[in-house]
Each structure stands twice: as structure tokens, then as C-alpha cells.
Sequence to fold (716 residues):
Amino acid sequence: MKYLDEFRDPVLARSLVERLRRAVTRPWTIMEICGGQTHSILRHGIDQVLPPGLELVHGPGCPVCVTPLETIDRALAVAARPEVILTSFGDMLRVPGSRGSLLEARSRGADVRMVYSPLEALALARANPEREVVFLAVGFETTAPGNAMAVHAAAASRLTNYSQIVSHVLVPPAMAAILEAPGNRVNAFLAAGHVCTVTGWRMYEPVAAKHRVPIVPTGFEPVDILEGLLQTVELLESGQPRVVNRYGRAVLPDGNPAARAVVDQVYEVCDRKWRGIGVIPASGLRLREAYAAWDAERKFAVTDIEPAEPEQCVAGLILQGRLKPADCPAFGRECTPQSPLGATMVSSEGACAAWYRYGRRSPQ
Amino acid sequence: MTDRPDFNGFHCPLPHLDHDTIQMAHGAGGRLSADLFERLILPRFTSAELAPRADGALLDLPPGRVAFSTDTFVVTPLFFPGGDIGELAVCGTVNDVAMTGAVPLVLSVAFVLEEGLPLADFHRILCSMERAAARAGVRVVTGDTKVVGRGQCDGIYINTSGLGVVPAGRHLGAERIAPGDAVLVSGTMGDHGVAILTARAGLGVQSAPASDCAPLGGLVEALLASGADVKALRDPTRGGLAAVLNEFAASARAGFVIDDGAVPVRPDVAGICEMLGLDPLHAACEGKLVAVVAAGDADRALAALRAHELGRDAARIGAVTGLHPGVVTMTTALGVERVLDMPVGEQLPRIC
Fold:
């Protein structure tokens, strides 16, 4: 299949592995930001064929994983109201808050519906004028334009029974936070290709320059990831801390200006708490004052919910690349996809779920 | 080998009834119930056993061990590309019976109808059940109809139970699986699951994949007639190929090694799965089988499958190993072996 087969070509992939072996002369630690890349790496076994000394650590790029517990609890509180239809993307519905997940809330009678697009939630609001349709808007720069567009469209058509719980996060501040954290081991990043299709790759230049790290946007297939790794290693070995785009078929220097414009119109940058990591300054998006009427947290007054995380879960350290899933004593024992302690085990993009699913269990 | 009869010629006009939709009275046992049964249901299921309308069917079965299976069908939407709930209800149970090595013979059919279901929809479902039963070579010999109030079910639920007889000398079962055996699939994986998901989600995909819903009795007979030593058969429905292999691995206490590149997946199914972050090997089929056969017979078995119209895309996808009992692994394009696990819960699309 076009854009799939050629990027999974075994001969090409193996030749890239060979070139990577020759390129690495010193130990390097590279973080892949995106959970989609983490899954691809484990699914195709890329981590198993890397040369000794080249280590991949998994980054915080899983929207479900970093959505703070209070956001889920607020969504649960909103969903409990009889007039509300709470909508979100599939993955989000399974994440446990401090009182169960949204799917469990549905089994107790809440009207919780999975949608594939924020515009679907808008259509639901139009079709159910007597109900309040709330969309739980999570994700990185990738999903922000669609979610912003939905609010923009609601405002344009004066649709007042639609609102959002916004928990959007931004990648570059998280990268800076990881690099500035004590004990950081990350020497370079594979940047998330889908985020870059919206933002472009130039936005990484300040991070690369300030922290002197190479950053390489790349795709999600084995050949994409191996090419990205080879490029990153070449930049590291030759001491060039700059941004090189290896996802040329999808990413432009300035991304998608129309998408960025609608995001900027509807949302503004704010401090944001990341689940397991804490508050990162200027790392999130919230609705601008002009769109306050579409802010579900204000509409339903649920901003004061501040729950505590389960103590056993080390997801925060995993999301920062400080620990691997199998380093967690609960991994595969108290914490499995069937009964997850933290979001990294729930989401299809979570590192713990990927390790569990593809059989990287801790040695018995 | 097997010519597929042309069922398009079936004439299936909607009989005239007093109502356009299902009424509570259609399930109350009175005149409306009798009307529904005699004018809508019975004409679709003409079998000697059903005709007397007794409380139960008396069956004369050929000699051999009897296989018995039951399944309930609750699919949304009721009509989807490649089939509908009626065809699914016949094929699903027929296939479960066929996977035991039995020749499927008879079915029971029980309906739970929602008040307000359009009679035209019910009739359309009955007509597909008639076609599917004819194609599968099974007779509907007993049944039941209940009506529930609006909102108490999703249009229509169908339960079917099936009986079949295993010819003498035939013995299939996961316990016969041994290291060295070859693993075959009869065609592309995940078609039905992705077709349903696409229809449900309204993804607006231009070439929406169709369900592969089909009765597999004929394909099983063709495979067994090849003389290949077939150890075990299963149809990868819910949970897909990954679930079937893990079930085999657990019950046979054997390991499986599957070659990622050898598993047939339609390009549109692969594309939609990529888009939604799903794995086609976790998605259901409704007209495919997984066969474990003695290694020496693999070529013969594969040729027999491919010669049948429902097995044209059959492939040898891997082998049974003694190395990691109970665990299914997959060899990736990079030559790395990784675990192919059971799906957990509902398949949910990813966020980005």
C-alpha cells in the first residue's frame, strides 16, 4: 500500500540498521517524543536491532497519559449531570480518574459517547438542542486545530449547548522541561511527525539552540524511524545541535498556517499540569476569554476538583524518560492493561501498554 | 471447485400485513403473532421439521458425533457493507459448528424484536437468512419470536443454535496441535471488524471495505477432502487472529511463531486500521478460518483452500514451536520476534 509498504520495506530497513551500526561510535540516549512512535518501535522490534550504546527512551507524547487526573475527574463530574452528553475520543474513555473511568460512568447511566471527530460532537449538539453536549478536548498540537475549529463553528452558529473541557498540551515546553530536569540523560529527540505537520519544524530551533540538542522530526513507520535515528546519530557524532526534518512528505518548515491560525484565535497559551510530571509553565492551551461561553469547566463549575495520584504509579518518571516501564515494581503485576494504575498502561499510545502488549515483560 | 450458486434470483417480496412496524401485539401470541409467523417468517424457512409448528423439532440425523453451538447477534448497524445481522446470525453459528469438523445441518432461530422495527427491515433480514441458510446447506427447524418495548433492544437481536454431525474418523481439536505444525489462514484478516467499525463511525471512507461474512462448511469440507492432516480449525471472529492463536497456544500448551509479512490483510483494511490506530489482527473476520495442519501436509492444505472460492487468498503464516509454550510471537520485517498478545477489551481508536 502506498506510503505504508515502502516505509516497511525489510531490505531498506535492514540496510539502515547496518548504517546505524557503523555511525555510532559513542553511547547516545535519544528520546522519541511521540507515543505512536514508541508503539511502532516496539511493534516492529526496532529497539532490539539497535547497535550497543544507542538507547531509546520513551517520551511524554501520549495525550491520554499526560492528561491530569483532575481533568478526568472534572469530566466525570460533568458527565454525571443528567442533561449532559459527554463526548471524547475512544482512548480517553478508558482512563481511570480517581473514581473510575468514563466508560464505567457510562455503565452507571451517564450519557458518554465516543466520537471520531470534534465536529461529530457539534452535530450531536445540533441534533439534541435540549441537551448539553460537552467535548473533552485533549491532545497535542495535532488535535488542537480540529478542536479549535469546533468551538469556532459553534460560536459562528451561536450554538450554546456545546462546550469543551480543554486540556491541550504543547510539545516544545515539555522537551525543555525534560532537558532541564536534574539527572536528564536525553542527548537528542526524535520529534513527533504529526505534531510537526501542524506546527512545522522551525519551532524546535530555539530548543535545539538553547539546549544544544539535535531534533529530528520523523514519521511512524520502521524506515521513517530508522532514517530519523540515523540522522540524529550523524548530528550527534558530528556535534551539530540543530533541527533536520526527516518527515519531508508531511512536514513543512512552518507547518499548516491555517490550522495554526484557528488554534491561535480560539485558544491561548497557559501553564498546564501534566499527569505524573507536574505543572510546566506555558505548556498548555485554554479557551480565550472571548470563548468563555464554550468552556465547560466554567459552565458547570467543576474547577475546584483536585484529586491525588495513586502512590504506586511511576508514570511521571516514565513519561520523562527517567525509567523504563519494566523498572516499575507494579509493571505486569498490580498494573496491567486490564487493571491499570496509571494512564501510561491505559492508552494505546502509552509506553507501559506498549511494553506489555509487545511482550517486553520484566524477566521473571 | 465449488460453484457458487446465484442467489440474486431469489424472489423475496414483502407480504402485505396490517402494520408497517413491529407492534407489541406481534409477540403476544394472538392473531398478529400468527400473521407475522405465517406470512413473514415461515415462508423464508420452509423445512419439513418447521412446518407442523410443534413445540420442538424431531430430527433424524446421520450417524456420528453431534456438534452443537449457539451464538447471539447484537450488531450495530443492522445492515452493513457485505451483509446484515441476519446473514451474520446464520453464518456465525454455521461456522462455529463447521470448525469442530462437523457438517452443519440444522439451525434454531430466535428473534428479540424491538417495538417499532420496520417490517420491511425485518423482512430484509429474514430474506438474507434464507439465502445464507441455502448457501450453507442448513435447514431452520425451530424458532421463537419475542417483542420488547421501544428502547429495550437495538432493533433486533437474533440467537441461532446449530447442530452438525462429525463424519466417522474425523478428529479435530486444539489438543492435537504439536510443535512443527504449520499455521494457515483462508484469506485476509480483519475485514468484518473494520467494515462494521467503518459503517458505525461514518468515517466517509470512499472505498469502505465489505464484511467477509460467509458460511465456511464447504471450505472446511474441501480442506478435509484434500487428505491433509488437519489438527484444529477455528474462525477468527471477536478478537481476530491474535485471539485465536493465543487460545490455541493456551489450550495446546504450545508456542506459535507468525511471520508478520505473510499474514494477508486487504490494503483498505490495513489503511483504516493505520488511521485509527487499530491492529487488523485484533479485528474480526466472519468468513475466514485458521487451520493448524501437519507440516508435511501444509502445501496440500493450502492448495485445497486456494482452489475454493472462499479461500483464494489463503496463506501459510507461521508454525507451532515448542520453544515458548503458551506464547504467540510475530517475526517483524526486521527479523525481530515480538509477542502477539490478546486484545484487551474494546478496540478503541487512538487520539492522534
Notes: The domain at 1-358 of chain A is CATH 3.40.50.11740 (Rossmann fold). Chain A touches chain B through 42 residues (CB under 8 Å). Chain A has one domain: 1-358.
